[in-house]
Amino acid sequence: MEKVDLLIIGGGVNGCGIARDAAGRGYTVLLAEQADLASGTSSGATKLIHGGLRYLEHYAFRLVRDSLRERETLWKIAPHIIWPMRFVLPVDPAGRPAWLLRLGLAIYDHIGGRQLLQPTRSLALSRDRIARVLDERFTRAFEYSDCWVDDARLVVLNARDAADRGAEIAVRTRVTAVRPQEDGWLADLEDQAVGKPYSVEARKVGTRHVRARMIVNAAGPWADIVARSAFGNNATSRIRLVRGSHIVLRYRLPDERAFIFQNADGRVMFAIPYEGTFTLVGTTDAETEADPSQATPSGEEIDYLLAGISENLRTTFTRADVAWQFAAVRPLLDSGEAGDAQDATRDYTLSLEHPRGAPLMTVLGGKLTTYRRLAEAALEKIEAELGPVDTRSAGWTGKVQLPGGDFPRGGADALAQRLRADFPFLAAATCERLVRSYGTRAWDMLGAATSCEDLGTHFGAGLTAREIEFLQRTEFAQTAEDILWRRTKCGLHMTAQERDRCQVGIEDDRPG
Length: 512
Fold this sequence. Notes:
Blueprint: E1 2-9, H1 13-24, E2 29-33, E3 48-49, H2 61-77, E4 82-90, H3 98-110, E5 121-124, E6 140-149, H4 151-164, E7 168-171, E8 173-181, E9 184-191, E10 207-217, H5 223-229, E11 239-249, E12 258-262, E13 268-274, E14 278-282, E15 286-287, H6 299-312, E16 322-333, E17 348-353, E18 360-365, H7 371-386, H8 412-422, H9 428-438, H10 442-446, E19 458-460, E20 463-464, H11 465-474, H12 480-487, H13 490-493, H14 496-508
Parallel strand pairs: 1-2, 1-10, 2-7, 4-12, 10-18
Antiparallel strand pairs: 3-6, 4-6, 5-6, 8-9, 9-10, 11-14, 11-15, 11-16, 12-13, 13-14, 17-18, 19-20
Helix pairs in contact: 1-4, 1-7, 8-9
């Protein structure tokens, strides 16, 4: 029977972050994800590494400080998928006053140990070209720094690094039952693979029985479902399920700066340059009791986002302008106090229990920006339970680059030029995309190719059979959805016919 130190349930950013840290410290780790990595909350975010400026209004100073401290650390370890972004905050005459915004931004600039990111500055919109797209009521604005992230790739790269350090990443594997034992847990895992795995030989078909010294329930919005179905725990839920929806518009902002707007209802709304020619708009906060795997934006949410962005820009947007829409359910901590979903804390908690003596940790809450700190806190509890295995100290994950990130911050453009020089048959835009996705691993993916033909079938948007095979072999991808919408965003740039052709190509290539 297989034996591991840690069985981690859930392949989102928290589960994969814990797997990476634990594997790096010498623990044997098995991560089981019922669907694809980042197929839930972790790919449905606003895609920001940020402190959360609006959290200051709720006096969440520690959360903001800890988040801000992580921005430059995460940028350092993943400069291919994370980079600085400037945000323009227009002063709305009907919203929060300018002095209050300036005070909040001053706090934001100074409590998080900012070193490389640019500080806040005031904008006179009469002299800034970005004003031409803003509603005429705006005459003044502030500009500050945060970071952008490809959220799904952040998850996958943590999983890849964990696997490189010895962890097993079992996608489409469901934990169906667990039973406490004297020396830990006995777990039943059921393989639910639907496509070609990253390694055909490595797939363990059917039901597996695994002994684990400790279990980490990092299933996010499914945490309560896992607790009930696998553990038989019928305790009252400790999380609030809140759906956040986004739309992607066929609209290009004037430059690489993003907007953060104050809506009339007190919420804030982001408009972010996305995938070159699009704009990402979000988010909403809607309480939900639906299955998180079925999360989709409601018509009301889409209309809310369209109305909000139309009110703040000089363009009126309709549903015909929406190129893509997505939603995800955030598992927010339930404090037991009534209040709007937008006011619920984005902090996290790690709950440790010992059913019949077997250690079980449940991860609740959290946000993309703090995933690495959450993992470090989890490892403190894991080491206390299981004893240390390796002498590697806490904090190592903030010093070692994620796969492909072994180049200087701000060096992605130079890396793309180098890639173009080595593979001159590739378009400049393709080289930029490959570097922004894979960093130095782009050379591994392209291999010894000397022509476009060497990359196999071209499915559209620069996606080739060579890249698909690379994603299946090294990044745990199995289906067209995994590849088109999470490992890459090529699906957004393809026609419906190209997406269908890609899906057929992947299905035809599945092992028999």
